[in-house]
Amino acid sequence: MSRPRGWVRLAYGEDIPLREGRVVRIGDQEIAVFNLGEKFLAVENRCPHRQGPLADGILAGETVICPLHAWKINLEDGRVQKPAETLACVRTFRTKVEAGTLLLEVGPSPICAGAERQSALVLSSPSETEEAEI
Question: 3-class DSSP state for residue 109?
Fold first, then answer.
């Protein structure tokens, strides 16, 4: 059964340090959320190589370096950039900030959103949301 599309409250934006990642759990899914300063980006929290925890990786621009074997993942589209010949990617999630609260869009989406550009929105209008476990 797939989850309906909607926005989930994650945290206050200020609770995720600049240029760092944090893990959030929504149901049985772990998601890595990164604070890039001007926006937040989110991807599934497992490297496609050996399932390394991407939230523990090192940020380099809009990419994260997996802490296990140094695979480089683009946080915008989920594609593996290093090694270059790799066609693997990770699922991305749209994010937005409303009144200082970070929200993440969940619901049906492709297993790997590498072909779609993930966008980070900054909005201030209220919406119906639910809470995520951090």
Answer: coil
Residues 6+ apart with CB under 8 A from 119: 94
Helix (H, G, I), strand (E, B) or coil at 98: strand
> CA 81 to CA 65: how far, in whole Å?
10
Peptide bond into 108 cis (omega under 30): no
- Strand order of the β-sheet with 129-131 is 120-122, 95-98, 101-106, 6-12, 129-131
Whether residue 80 contacts residue 73, with contact meaning beta carbons closer than 8 Å, is answered with: yes
Instruction: Fill in the DSSP letter of residue 46.
Output: S
What domains lie within the chain, and their CATH numbers?
Answer: 6-131 (2.102.10.10)
Give the predicted TM-score (pTM) of the model. Answer: 0.79
On whether the CB atoms of residues 96 and 7 are closer than 8 A, the answer is: yes
User: How confident is the model over 90-129, as pLDDT tens digits?
Assistant: 999 999 999 999 999 987 655 565 444 333 333 333 344 4
